[in-house]
Design the sequence.
DNA sequence: AACCCGGGGCC
DNA sequence: GGCCCAGGGTT
């Protein structure tokens, strides 16, 4: 038995021996449900996405329900999960499939990949799970498992590396059971061949794993690029007005696009005299307004994969009856809007929601 | 090819 | 504090 066939057969046997992780979308043949689960699980761990999946299905039992929803409602359901373009693209594609395909999801990967929010991985996942199309998924799990077992010392974040891993994966996939194979290798990567402290003792492939033999487990897979973490600084104003709390929607091509926030102003940095910075912003943005300062909050940090966000929340009470700005929304029910996590945490700390 | 987009958990 | 996660879109 050659090395590739051995790998595939051992993996399928491991998967058959009740090593499957239990998830509601496993074995699902409804393309809508499979698609929904795959979008939610992009760059997201199963434990984090599960509750969102269940809530989405409850709210939008089928594609048409989702297509007919308002984008704000979709984003509200997505609140806290991150990568919000996934939610916007999810809604866009629901409408597109409803309009162009009569509500029936296309099944082939070449059609699927043309839809917004569906890339190589997701097209392979949906078409193999729903239609048994023999196309291999290549996600973080697959790259790690292949890099180690076959001792692939090519960085995967390069064009050459991507091509190599894709071709290798498509060479390994079981042609009769591509769905089971794709499930198996991802489950295997997530539970046995983990990034840190892999469970080699329980690994059915340990004896023939080249990285294990050469003590390269902790070195593989290779990656060339390193993410630069930039810092961003904001002052956010929680303003009580006679019309309600002032909000603004983030419309620009930037982080948290489509979500709502308290009126916020970005700074190059915070200085020692924070109150002075706040007063300068108030004078600049609301020259005719008078505020009562209720509370100058402590600086809050939110760490993201590629950003560190620092926000100072300022609680103010407007002393005038006029609205602050036409561009703001005024509400007494914050729970209706989708906010970035850092705002949710602030509202919770104040006991507002 | 480089850069952008969140949040959580693990070490 | 760094790394990774059932990645994809834009430039």
Sequence:
């Amino acid at each position: 038995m050659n090395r590739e066939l051995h790998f595939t057969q051992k993996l399928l046997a491991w998967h058959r021996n009740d090593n499957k992780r239990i998830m509601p979308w496993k074995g699902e043949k409804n393309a809508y449900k499979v698609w929904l689960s795959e979008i939610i699980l992009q760059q997201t761990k199963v434990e984090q996405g599960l509750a969102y999946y269940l809530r989405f299905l409850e709210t939008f039992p089928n594609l048409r329900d989702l297509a007919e929803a308002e984008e704000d409602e979709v984003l509200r359901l997505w609140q806290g999960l991150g990568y919000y373009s996934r939610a916007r693209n999810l809604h866009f594609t629901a409408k597109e499939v409803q309009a162009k395909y009569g509500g029936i999801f296309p099944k082939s990967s070449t059609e699927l990949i043309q839809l917004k929010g569906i890339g190589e991985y997701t097209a392979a996942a949906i078409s193999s799970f729903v239609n048994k199309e023999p196309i291999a998924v290549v996600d973080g799990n697959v790259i790690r498992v292949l890099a180690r077992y076959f001792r692939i010392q090519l960085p995967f974040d390069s064009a050459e590396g991507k091509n190599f891993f894709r071709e290798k994966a498509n060479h390994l996939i079981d042609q009769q059971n591509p769905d089971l194979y794709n499930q198996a290798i991802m489950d295997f990567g997530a539970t046995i061949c983990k990034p840190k402290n892999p469970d080699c003792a329980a690994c059915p492939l340990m004896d023939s794993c080249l990285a294990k033999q050469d003590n390269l487990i902790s070195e593989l897979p290779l990656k060339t690029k390193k993410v630069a973490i930039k810092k961003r600084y904001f002052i956010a104003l929680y303003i009580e007005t006679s019309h309600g709390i002032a909000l603004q929607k983030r419309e620009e091509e930037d982080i948290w696009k489509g979500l709502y926030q308290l009126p916020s102003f970005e700074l190059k940095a915070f200085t020692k005299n924070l109150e002075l910075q706040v007063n300068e912003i108030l004078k600049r943005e609301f020259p005719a307004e008078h505020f009562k300062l209720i509370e100058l909050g402590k600086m809050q940090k939110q760490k993201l994969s590629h950003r560190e966000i620092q926000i100072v929340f300022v609680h103010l009470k407007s002393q005038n009856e006029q609205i602050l700005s036409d561009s703001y929304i005024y509400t007494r029910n914050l729970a209706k809007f989708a906010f970035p996590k850092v705002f949710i945490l602030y509202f919770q700390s104040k006991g507002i929601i």
